[in-house]
Amino acid sequence: MSVPGGVLLVTRNLPPLLGGMERLNLQICRALAEGGECHVVGPEGSAAKLPPGVVVREIPIRPLSLFVVRAAIAAWQMAARHRPSWVLAGSGLTAPMAWLAAIRARARSAVYAHGLDLIVPSSVYRALWIPIIRRLDLCLVNSRHTAELAQGVGIAKQKIVVINPGVDQPAEDASDTMAGFRTRHGLGQGPILLSVGRLTRRKGLSEFVANAFPRIAAHSPTVQLVVIGDYAPDALTGGGAELWQDVMEVAGRCGVTAHVHHLGVVDDDELAAAYREAVAHVFPVRAIEGDIEGFGMVALEAASRGTPTIAFSVGGVPDAIGEGQSGMLIEPGNYDGPSRQRPLLVTCEERIPSDLSCIVD
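Predicted structure:
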């Protein structure tokens, strides 16, 4: 990705923070660095994750108010020093910093919007951030749904460009890691349903455990639900340990505690092993006002490992799943009721090996 004059990327969403937005911004930075100059204003600790040669100004992410001020100053200084031709905000949060830096460098400005950063339920954000986002030269969005949200907050249609994120094709899996995955986590030899992602209420894990998993476990006694991911205290609508406590309380009430395993954050090899062993990745995202799923990077990552995703058709998720190719899309909230579509419970049942198949009434 070559940009004459170079690019200044201003973002709070980069590793070591975890999540799809963070991985996407890292991919963007790597692509920009391959094609020319790329400078970054990013979170503390991000320099170690970025390509060699990328000049980085690290900013502590807490408290958020100080991050905003410090990032604005750093972006202004880097724009004056490096004179990029484009300044890119990695999300709507850093759009004002990118806009000011672009003015300083006499550059063009853009934001990559992910969905939630356009509809955050904050009067201050709506009053100050959204008008500035409207002024940028381009608004790149991750899905058709996010494009609709962008138009809904007054961004001119001609400025909006849909660019679906992608993932790198993984290298061959390490056989020694694969061989020991089930043993390491005490999973036995039964079918595995996998959930990957940060623990937020939007992901719908508690609802899945309450409404679908007990019936699956009742008719397929060796099935295991493996959850990979951790809390999201740094997300705009993050969550803490109480979310996992909710999941386990539901599991306890439903009698499936022994079938639910939280592995937390794992490395790439362990994640690859989990995808390989799983019969399906479940993504029961909820439609929550003010907290939407803008795309669904994890569905692409699952597909790159050959694991289908079973997901509710919420927000931008349909852009991340090829129906019948990389996964199955289910009517939002339809666990086992009558519908023109197959319910989620039935679809999960179809992924369970026939000798352990659950029987749906």
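Summary: DSSP finds 13 helices and 13 strands in the chain.
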